[in-house]
Amino acid sequence: MADARMLEQMTANDGFIAALDQSGGSTPGALRQYGVPETAYNGDKEMYAAVHAMRVRIMSSPAFTGKKVLGAILFEMTMDGEAHGLPVPTFLWEKRGVIPFLKVDKGLAAEADGVQLMKPMPDLDALLERAVKKGVFGTKMRSVINHANPAGVAAIVDQQFDVGLQIAKHGLVPIIEPEVSIKAADKVECEALLRDAIAKRLDALPADVKVMLKLTIPSKPDFFLPLVKHPKIVRVVALSGGYSRTESCKLLAQNHGLIASFSRALAEGLKFSMTDAEFDAALAASIDEIYGASKDKIAA
């Protein structure tokens, strides 16, 4: 069973989720944004050490607490790492009041029927067992919809929910993330297919299972409100999807019940070269802006 205090915080409190889960493919870009070029490290080991240091700096900043940051999504190596001598999930919850989540997917398969499913996860159960032991509350897994293909959207939702049920059996709360590309020419049609497919799977969930959703901010404000209000939903969060932080927050604020789960938009403007005071001030401003767009979003 999910931790009762964490579940209460995630269900009832104002705030947003920080996505600190860049993996192998996206880590170099995250480091470049932070001001660390690829010439500054040699090989994956040094690269992951650099991004871990960046993440610990973010987590340790005075503004990064459960008062505004409800949870944080971690990459597997971050979950296994330490912050100030403590396992990262322990540090987040006990020292910062931030709920730890774990990214569990292994990346995207090649596009078929207008979508990119998740690659197979043969070691998922073992990973989930480790996550439970480390005090993780939930998981996140991403797949992508590029075109409004009914068969493709159905396949992506079915895969997400089937794996979500596997995750729920470990007592974890799955974040189901079928991202609609903001570049999709038929984004509105994608969202209509997606909303209907998700609603059907939510209706069919077992009595003891609840899930979260992570969705692209819809083109029509409040389009996902029926999902937000569904009794099987803990929370619906939104990804920034390539929008700037300002644009993401502007669009997010138009959607009742939708809170942020931003990665690149959260870290926008943070630089390795900043003094701690400069870094903390920049991160605090980012957190305040995203929190403001997510505030008062408990669905009526």
What does this structure look like?
The protein has about 300 residues and is α/β, with parallel strands linked by helices. It has one domain: Aldolase class I (TIM Barrel, Alpha-Beta Barrel), CATH 3.20.20.70. Helix content is about 45%, strand content about 20%. The protein is built from twelve helices and eleven strands. Strand 7, helix 7 and strand 8 form a beta-alpha-beta unit. Helix 7 packs across helix 8 and helix 10 packs parallel to helix 12. The mean pLDDT is about 95.
Tell me the series of helices and strands, N- to C-terminal.
Answer: HEHHEHEEHEEHEHEHEHEHEHH
Shape: globular
Tell me the radius of gyration: 18 Å
- For the record, the count of structural domains works out to 1
Q: Which structural class do you get from the secondary structure elements? A: alpha/beta
CATH homologous superfamily - what is it?
Answer: Aldolase class I
The poorly predicted ranges are none
Spatial order of the strands forming the largest sheet: 1-2-5-7-8-9-10-11
How many strands?
11
Q: pLDDT average, as an integer? A: 95
| Range of strand content | 15-25%
Cα(first) to Cα(last) distance is 26 Å
Sheet with the most strands, sense and barrel status: 8 strands, parallel, barrel
